[in-house]
Amino acid sequence: DSGMFTFDPGYTSTASCKSGITYIDGDKGELLYRGYPIDELAEQGDFLETCHLLLYGDLPTREQYEDFENRVTYHTMIHEQMSRFFTGFRRDAHPMAIMVGVVGALAAFYHDSTDISDPMQRDIAALRMIAKMPTIAAMAYKYSIGQPFVYPRNELNYAHNFLYMCFAVPCEEYKIDPVLARAMDRIFILHADHEQNASTSTVRLAGSSGANPFACIASGIACLWGPAHGGANEAALNMLQEIGTVDRIPEYIDRAKDKDDPFRLMGFGHRVYKNYDPRAKVMQKTAREVLDLVGVQDDPLLQVAQELEKIALEDPYFVDRKLYPNIDFYSGITLKALGFPTSMFTVLFAIARTVGWIAQWKEMIADPDQKIGRPRQLYIGPARRDYVPIQDR
Ligand code: SDX
């Protein structure tokens, strides 16, 4: 019956759902969360109000904001027994591997939130996930460098608290420049949602079977890890470091164009954007601010990135294919300047994207037309044949 189906590898022309959360116009390079342009949210808003917007459909009033903040911060701790999970991993474990395991294990600790038939429990699951992701991520980081875990401080805002849990050390006064905390917050806003990207589609597909929300988010984290998706921020920085100096750029541009070479420009190209990724614009500006503040105005990596972008945007190969820098191109430089090792980059993406994943999951579960996701295939294997006993083969 293979002739009955539309063949659409990579779903380039299939809408998998109806959604009222995020809108992208790829030709214009426009991104809206619930109607609000991404640059306005990133420049004027904060991450927690963006979470409220994505989850509940509107920006909060002051009163709603305070209530939401209280409801999120109530859940920032993880069960103390979970802290033992980390010590089971090798110190050199990739933090994304730890994230997949620990987030999946949340289902074993918060049984009440696995009841997806109860809208209140679904909401609590969302709050728990948003609240606990920074704590889990910071613990993975602290474990990797052999430092004691730092518990959340709820009077700090979301991004600031995360930086605190990562970079505070016992017996030393902890201080961070508000510009850096603001940059972290902005990075979270820029990554918060992006309609039906690979990891969000994974979360929806997992959720369509009725799987619990923690398992669904763990599957999203696993998908995000790939270098063609969220892993590109780590890959992009590794690439810039490998290129090293501006004079070596042409060699790498040639390699990216060579179809016999698997190398691609990391942080370049996008399935939907055939114009500049609007998030990359804000990201580039943020990178500049952070580098100026931490005193590395002449960071060779930024020079390489800017020159690479310039050369690529003038090259007919990239122009013809409408390949522009995406969000991951400048985020790595910024995260490095904030003090994170490359292995943490995709983890930071996962923290931010959790709200998008869970908002999309909630939207799907509440949709009366929701069905289990079950694509078909074009079968290309052997036709029916008879079993041959092993001695006769
Ligand atoms: C994210 O989907 C989302 O919304 C994702 C995301 C989100 O917020 O969730 O925006 C986050 O994942 C950003 C993307 C990060 N990935 C990278 O930066 C990795 C490098 N880029 C790619 O591999 C690629 O561009 C993708 C995966 C992003 C998009 O792949 P598509 O849509 O399948 O496009 P394609 O591979 O078919 O490319 C079309 C053409 C091809 O050439 P031709 O065969 O037509 O000659 O463009 C070429 C590709 O070879 N091409 C590149 C290239 N990206 C595409 N050539 C060189 N370098 C590149 N980076």
Q: What does this protein structure show overall?
A:
By secondary structure, this protein is mainly α. Helices cover 53% and strands 3% of the residues. It has 17 helices and three strands. It has helices at residues 38-44, 47-56, 62-73, 83-87, 95-105, 119-144, 158-167, 178-191, 198-208, 213-224, 232-243, 249-257, 278-294, 300-314, 316-320, 327-338, 345-366; strands spanning 22-25, 30-33, 36-37. The chain has a three-stranded antiparallel beta sheet. Helix 5 (95-105) packs antiparallel against helix 10 (213-224), helix 8 (178-191) crosses helix 17 and helix 9 runs antiparallel to helix 10. The protein is globular. The two termini are 30 Å apart. The model has no long low-confidence stretch (mean pLDDT 95). Bound molecules: s-citryldethia Coenzyme A (SDX). S-citryldethia Coenzyme A is lined by residues 10, 194, 197, 228-230, 232, 256, 264-272, 321, 323, 326-328.
Keyword list:
3 strands; 53% helix; mainly alpha; three-stranded antiparallel beta sheet; binds s-citryldethia Coenzyme A; 393 residues
The helix-strand sequence is: EEEHHHHHHHHHHHHHHHHH
Query: What is the mean predicted local confidence, pLDDT?
Result: 95
Q: What fraction of residues sit in β-strands?
A: under 5%
Structure class: mainly alpha
Please tally the β strands and state the result.
Answer: 3
Q: Percent range for helical residues?
A: 40-55%
Q: DSSP helix count?
A: 17
Strand line-up across the major sheet? 1-2-3
Report the biggest beta sheet as strand number plus sense, adding barrel if it closes: 3 strands, antiparallel
Radius of gyration: 22 Å
Query: Which ligands occur here?
Result: s-citryldethia Coenzyme A
What ranges have pLDDT less than 50 throughout 5 or more consecutive residues? none
Distance between the termini: 30 Å
Overall geometry comes to globular
